[in-house]
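From the shared-data thread, chain only:
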Amino acid sequence: MESLFLRISGGDTIRADELRARASASFLAFIMLSYLPLVAAVVLLVMNRPQSTDTAAEQDQFTAVKSYATRYVDAYLKDPSNATAIKQFYDGDIPPSALPAGGRALRAASCLPGVFNDGFQTYSVVVDAEIPKAANAASMVPVKLQVDISADTHNLYRAFTLPHARPDRRPGLPVQLATQTLVSEDRPVYKTVAGFLAAMLTGQGDLTPYISAGASLTAEQPRRFTTMAIERVQTNSETATAQDVPTQADGVEVTVRAVMQTASGVLMPMDFPLVMSVAAGHWQVDRINDAPSIIPPNQAGPSAPSLTRQPPRQRPVSHRVITRLTAPKGANK
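Structure, as tokens:
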């Protein structure tokens, strides 16, 4: 760098030092001028960053709005001519209604935020309700009613529409469970899930050998089912279809279609999505899967076998459990 300034100054060292000092000062001035806008931009971003969402407070708000909407609909259906009761929730005009009194709100089915305008937040709430078929009738008709609620700057609520009918939303696109591979009856996984469900739901045998050490699963008390028959077991992993237990496996998803029978003889088909793993040479159930994997419609195709690709062989439910239940090795130690 010094040779460059010497060359520019024609070999004059004093002039070269002056040029170098002048260039350094210009560079520092440029840095300072660039730094100030950068600092200002960062300050503006920090000041205008969106506030973090308080999930608990947001959920509490939805709960309060749903409760308010349910009480409003209940007051309206109880007696549509009682303007005094309705005015506690709604300030608009209340036209005469031929709706028979005696209806009731059951529960808020959904609560969706609407618009935010000048400090007022609106919500659209759908309430499940019942209305009499006719005046003084004992039988009721289920209806869905939507009401619109506003929350003011003090977070106080007020309805601004009368309850109005809301048809059900149209059905969504179907998805499939990702557990598409059938597991035959002679496989270790099949025997484990059969023993697990029998112990958990019907009280047949001890549940401990079939669950992992950290599992929070317990046998159902009181028992509501007397017998069980498994229709099919399916998995998302080829590991679960092996004849022998693998040395290691974790997070394997298994879905069991079983038919349960109540003490009164009622048959109830059920699907049980499970998460399983291998420990100490045997399969074990870690938990009931609350978030089973799926195959979206755009990914489903001929390569993805259907759950109903072949009629399942129905087992008689009169027997307690068709599959012989064998506890894993080491269960009695």
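The chain has a mean pLDDT of 86.
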